[in-house]
Amino acid sequence: MITPRRPAGFNELLPADQMALNAMISIIRLSYEQHGYAPIETPALELSPVLLAKEGGETAKQVYRFSKGDNDLAMRFDLTIPLARYTAEHYHELTFPFRRYQIQEVWRAEKPQAGRYRQFYQCDIDIVGVDDITADADVLITARNTLKALDLKDAVLKISHRGLLTGFLADKKLDKKNTEVLRIIDKLDKQGEKVVATELAKLGLKKNDITELLKLVTIAGPAKDVLKKLPTIKQPAFTKALLELTQLNKLLTAAGLKSSEFVFDLSIARGLDYYTGMVFETVLTKHQNIGSVCSGGRYDNLLEQYHKEHLPGVGASIGLSRLFSAIKDSLSDAPANPAQVMVISFESQQDAYALSVVKTLHQSNLNAFLYPGHDKIGKQLKYADKLGITFVALVGSYEVEKEMITIKNLKSGEQKQMKLSKAVQFIRKNL
Amino acid sequence: MITPRRPAGFNELLPADQMALNAMISIIRLSYEQHGYAPIETPALELSPVLLAKEGGETAKQVYRFSKGDNDLAMRFDLTIPLARYTAEHYHELTFPFRRYQIQEVWRAEKPQAGRYRQFYQCDIDIVGVDDITADADVLITARNTLKALDLKDAVLKISHRGLLTGFLADKKLDKKNTEVLRIIDKLDKQGEKVVATELAKLGLKKNDITELLKLVTIAGPAKDVLKKLPTIKQPAFTKALLELTQLNKLLTAAGLKSSEFVFDLSIARGLDYYTGMVFETVLTKHQNIGSVCSGGRYDNLLEQYHKEHLPGVGASIGLSRLFSAIKDSLSDAPANPAQVMVISFESQQDAYALSVVKTLHQSNLNAFLYPGHDKIGKQLKYADKLGITFVALVGSYEVEKEMITIKNLKSGEQKQMKLSKAVQFIRKNL
Fold first, then answer.
1. Which of B119, B251, B383 has its CB closest to that of A44?
2. Residue B378: exposed, middle, or buried by beta-carbon count in 10 A (0-12, 13-18, 19+)?
3. Per-residue model confidence as pLDDT tens digits over B52-72
4. For an interface test with B, which of A68, A257, A365 has the most B Cβ atoms less than 10 Å from its Cβ?
5. What is the percentage of chain A residues whose pLDDT exceeds 70?
């Protein structure tokens, strides 16, 4: 006998929770489709030399990589690099701008911790092949509408633009330190201004520049206010960023986003190198501790490693597994079975009639099944109750003879004998 | 620059095909839920010593297995063993009979060939914890109804029962050769009676027994006829099988299965050891060449390796990826984007208005997006047409001023200017 157990960091759900998670996936899928994104899926396994072409350091260490036969294989660890590989491989079969969504699991051998798993769902959208601010707006609007569809009314998009910092640093002749400065700024929210100032000094920035920089990146608030507070910096990158943010504010407002639903926050840097324009994160004000639940931004060239075409794009990703584990306690008790009616047959002579009852319930678009076997009625009722099924339909010899069923509402206790056609209406009315 | 490519045997779909596959998954999911099965998902990676506790030979060779840190890991290669592990691990949290469905990918390093992939979807249902023929009927009915929901009207369930052969062999004092005989019989359909007879002779069966056995296992046809044709064999296993098949015929008929939709076919042996009662396969009469698209049966003890409880069960599995690749050419041309309306904004001054149009379309439950940027109208129309989007809504300065839009039906060529509220009705009517 072997103890049944899973590898550390690999979560799995009981049916009620799985139903709740599936409901969320379904909402995200429908919302992405409503916003005109088409689905793709990429394989769990890719060729390591292809998938890891650009990755080094931390990420590469976390990848599940192994050999099988002649193949050096790696498991999907995000949905962006597979999108790049997919887009390059199918370049001539795709229509650009390519609007795709992808809801799949990814695997990373991270240190397991609360709410962090080694297998988790990502739900990504991207518009590839266009550099226009309406695409950035589209991604942000879709992200907000999707979170709203998930009933996350406390979601706030925090938006910034890489060009502001780039412009500022160019103005100070610090262009070459762009990446390092970004990485340090990214820590602002966790480590505070003092630590950041010290690190910037270590990097060789002058005291004055550090003060100005910190003043810049701590600007945050309603879009209109932030646009007024921004300094004047005559650098093309800065000017472009300012124009784009101004237009974004107009577009998001036109699309119905309230000023409480998105802010401009210049501390949002996003650690990842590949962002080049708008960047954003999303916090739930009631669950600040879980960090960003939806992040993304604009990148310059998705296909870099794989293809000569220059394809800019913009995207967003919802970290579903973490989001789910954060909010699942606040979800109302979900049933552990999707059935609305369970049919009970008293004796095997009534099984055939009971199955014809199930058939009729199905034809009336109700979810139903026959309890298999003839355990004691009490046990069967308890079973239906435990699964969260509202109605039980009892079938004995009397019911078969009279072509009726006895319906019991397990929530109210009400019990009635009636014709099947009446029962369907009765159930519908009381669901 | 690295050539973007996938490992051999790993398929991926273009958006139109992915949408068609997703539609099938969605139908299967809804059908399983309608029949009262609850969803679970198990991790892609399991601990090898747990997952491969019982597996030897061919299957073990096909498993993607590797080490990461201290863990000896194996990728999911079917949904049955993970179900056993899950059921044993969560035994005290589950309610029995446990009715679960699971739609996930599995991975096997098989030799790639047409319609056979190294990553493919399985769609399983099982009822665990009960040995009652209504459960067998439930699984068969659900399988047939699900294939019917997929519009596979040519699906025929071929049902048999392990007890017939077991009883026959017991009667001939050949009990000990049960497994080998099963394996040989399983080849009947591919290799024919002669080869099977030769192999049975090699196994040591007498000529007379071989003749009788072949006569038995070639009985096939409408359930009623087969029940009449069966020989009388006074062995408990045979008698039980006969009783169960007789009852199955009644139950399936009561549930609305026509005699053309299921047959009893005693050549169905199912190679797998663990089946102990009813077994079945499903052929599409219009696609015989792809083999069984849905198979399963009754097993004696799911938890064997993991738990002291004795849990019999019955299940079925749809091999979706193979099914999809077989029928996808017969599906009508699917669009490559879920949007029903694409909005075109003539100039950036109209972008905000255009996004408010998109918002209204979304609120009217239409799928819509704004084409990002301001490419030439001809290019944008061609784009919408290529994606299979029916309606285009044009927004220029005139439309903004008059608070109207110009709607163009790309299928009929019809074009009209109207108020947005009218447009929604117009689109709905012509979708």
1. B119
2. exposed
3. 987 666 778 899 999 998 899
4. A68
5. 98
